[in-house]
Amino acid sequence: MTYLFVLIGGGIGALMRHLSTQFFNAFVPVKYPLGTLFVNCLGALLIGFLINAFDETRAMDTTGKPLLITGFLGGYTTFSTYSLETARYFLDGNPKLAVLNIVLHNGLCLVFVLLGMALHRALAQK
């Protein structure tokens, strides 16, 4: 049953990534792939929040983690696209944009994981 939860979550996550990236890029038409950065930061925020929620309650260990963390967020966030975009910057002779991409994705996603964890702690205390 766990495999089915991962499959369903991953499919929904991949579709949401596609839609989110297209929607974001339509409203922010720049050459930098902001849609990918947006998706990865939102995914980082969600995983920080959800992992605290699951660790605290343990109520959804068998369904929630496979469905939402492994499946949905695995399909929603996009390390491979981020890596490809970074490699293309290097190959196209734009090392400054490649390094900026690395710093933004790694730095911001770490911050968003911590924000998600803090948000869960704040909401759980109420």
Mean pLDDT: 91
Instruction: Report how far apart the termini are.
Output: 34 Å
Task: Let me know the largest β-sheet.
Answer: none
Which residue ranges are poorly predicted, with pLDDT under 50 across at least 5 consecutive positions?
A: none
Write down the overall geometry. globular
Structural domain count: 1
Got a strand count? 0
Percent of residues in β-strands:
under 5%
Structural class: mainly alpha
Which keywords apply here?
126 residues, mainly alpha
Please describe what this structure looks like.
The chain is an all-alpha fold and 126 residues long. It has one domain. It is built from five helices and no strands. The protein has helices at residues 2-27, 34-57, 64-76, 79-91, 95-124. The longest helix is centred in the C-terminal third of the chain and has 30 residues, at 95-124. The radius of gyration is 16 Å and the shape is globular.
In short:
The chain has one domain (2-124).
List the topology elements:
Blueprint: H1 2-27, H2 34-57, H3 64-76, H4 79-91, H5 95-124
Helix pairs in contact: 1-2, 1-3, 2-3, 2-5, 4-5
